Hints:
two-stranded parallel ribbon; two-stranded antiparallel sheet; 2 helices; 4 strands
Amino acid sequence: MPTIFSQLAAISQMLLHPHFIFDGPNKPSFKKDEDHLHCSRGPPLLEKHFQELLDVFGFGWHKVG
């Protein structure tokens, strides 16, 4: 099973510049998907560390809401 780091490393070798979008504090309780409603959010510390990894790889990210 690939790690987040190895996935980001693979993306960094592609001819693209990804931009990640995180839900902010005003995100809806549920989001509609094609098949079901879902809502997922990791622990704040996990989100913070993921954002730090994105910075290390030079990927863009921002938080909405």
